[in-house]
Write a structure and sequence with these properties.
The chain has 71 residues and is of the alpha+beta class. The protein contains one helix and four strands, in the order E-E-E-H-E.
Length: 71
């Protein structure tokens, strides 16, 4: 209902990273990208982000903005 798409990266059957994109009609917001603490430093977020960008391009998303919160 809120227009979110979720992307997951799995390794050996376990989710190791996740991302959420909020669709805003041709523009999207990257609202969340995270990696399990015990799997950080292995390039999982980069792999997930690369795949997310490919999939969003297929959907004709022209702009993806990043929302950053201080906390």
């Amino acid at each position: 209902q809120e227009g979110f798409r979720h992307y997951l990266l799995e390794d050996a059957g376990q989710v190791v990273a996740a991302a959420a994109i909020q669709d805003a009609g041709g523009r999207a917001w990257l609202k969340l990208i995270t990696t399990r603490p015990d799997r950080r430093g292995k390039g999982h977020s980069r792999t997930l982000l690369d795949g997310l960008l490919v999939e969003e391009a297929k959907r004709h998303t022209r702009v993806i903005a990043l929302e950053v919160l201080v906390d």
